[in-house]
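Annotated sample (chain length 706).
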Amino acid sequence: MNTDLQKLAEKLGIAVEFSDAGLKHQDYKVSEDIIKFFAKTMGYNADTAEAVAESLQKLNENRWQKTLNSVYVCNLHNIVIDVVSQNLSDIVLQAVAADGKTINLQYDYLGNCEYHGDLYKESLRISTPLAIGYYNLTAKVNGQTYHTTLAVCPDQCYNNLHNQKLWGYALQLYSLKSRRNWGIGDFTDLKNFVGLCADCGANVIGLNPLNVLNHNYPEDASPYSSISREFLNPIYIDVEEVPEFDPADKEPLTNLLNELRSSELIEYSKIYPLKVKMLEKCFARFKQSKDQKRHREFADFCSAFGTSLDNLAIFQSIYDEHVHHSFDGWKNWPAEYSAPSASGIKDFVLGHKDKIEFFKFMQFEAARQFSLAKSEVDKRGLTIGFYRDLAVGVGRDSAEYWSNPEFFMQDCGAGAPPDAFFPGGQRWNLGAFHPQNLSECAYKPFRNILRANMQNAGALRMDHVMSLMRLYVIPDNLDSGTYIYYNFDDMLNIVALESWLNKCMVVGESIGNVPEGFVEKINAKGIYALSILWAERNDMGWGSFRSPEEYPTNAFTSVGTHDIAPLKMWWFGYDIELNYAMGMLKNDEERALSYHKRETDRAYLLKALDQAQVWPEDRPRSGDYIYGEKYPEGIEEAVMRYMSRSASPVFLAQLEDMLHVEKMQNLPGTDHDKHPNWRRKIPVNLEDLSQDIAYIRCIGAIKKER
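Output written by the structure step:
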């Protein structure tokens, strides 16, 4: 590879080589075509040697083109900025805090001045004490005034554990089954589940991402591919709890609602349009209502979310108008609708006021009902309460992408590199932040999504937390991609700052291709790791299970995840058969090897449970069953007790394990036409859970240790 091209790639944060997360740990050299693509995407021509040299020169000149950077993300104890000018002898600094207070700043020259032609660059350390938060920083230099954003960040993320050992649930909200919902779990179910948790001593409720999905394609139900990570999915609204709901509207729906409640899988294409139809009736009554308090609350909600809410509602309205003749999403819309600032948007808004306002109304009501569930958390005294989930990316056919395409790299999407399970890698087709533009806008979109998902939450799970440092991105027209690097220190500091401002702990999902030293660095920042039973094993996951005492003390732990077979399914190897049927196991030999390994795994698990002496006293182990010929009675209780005994401060139980579910919520690498992802319901009604013997026994096992 050309030396200058390699230098350009390194300066832009484009990896020229990387290793995968496979068992053989294969190394990859990134092709020049991929590097040239990403350089161009970031605004730097690399087509020829001359163009590369010019781009390097341009890149080196960038910092000298402006007096201040667009943002300075600093630690509370080391607030340093740099200033570029012809004369640095007379600089006046002021900071305006979020409350409007102006602070005159004292500073020290650090003495590491650099020279470039007739320009000087000097670093200044601000000595005036500043509280954590965001400031509008003003610098008066040589009679000119310049502005930037200063983020003053804490040493670590917020922490509310206080050396406690807590437990709770990892819950897919949509999967909650009840006698009152409309075929899918909703915010009232969530509120009721809070009470159930309080009654049995649970303090955490882990939730799937709750973000808004595509209004026109309800069957595209993956919670990890939203159209905006700032807003909620209206499908979780309990229509009957909307103040404008008329019970008479429900009378003709009795048979349909019974059908939707009793179906094995969630029928999104029936439930969502039905809820929308009922909400449209509620909205019409709202418009006619004389309830000034509710109208004022709606106006305040719209004002608080401003342009972001406007853009979401406009996007959804245009999409609804064009869905039948623009089959590839917003990028095929007429040019006059191609962006919020496009020529036709103003007229569209004037002609579709009610429709746009309706989409805002759905967000208003979803937020209101979610807040009511959070009020129940506060009332019942759950220590952490809701543990929300922030998806690593957003769908490219999304309001978030349409509203600000400059925040994202174009003509490419986030994914995963090759590994043992996906030798060709994975295309997630999610928007990937543009590193330079993200910094230039003072990380505003990143801050916004953090803030939105910390709303009503005591903890936040960051999906694929490695994206704070690097993200694997694949060009649309190429078969493979490479890692794009971000300013890791800035990203970590902003996470910590938002964590404190929102009083929300942070947990990082770091399963996959994890860079060396990464986990240690996020732990040092107070970000908890995630740990699961199946990963806490010796010999790179092939050996014995680690004892509970060996579990990490800086992690939230669980038996599995929504992407992993529940306990009973794992025991019988039904997941192996499913992978074989889906073509994820290439042949009969791989299938046989998987079954053979599972026999060894069962033996290791039984040995670990025996050594820990966690079998229920009235259900001692009566056999090996390592060939999967029978499900050991009491094994789910033994596993719950084993995990509850772990050194990790938070254990999250899954209802699927407690209730002997034998099917997966999500099978990675498949769409819903191949596997019913995100559609499985819990087999027991919420109202009946506290009387279910399997549930009762598992709760008892957990409470023996926590």
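Annotation: The mean pLDDT is 95.
Annotation: Residues 237 and 366 are 5 Å apart (CA to CA).
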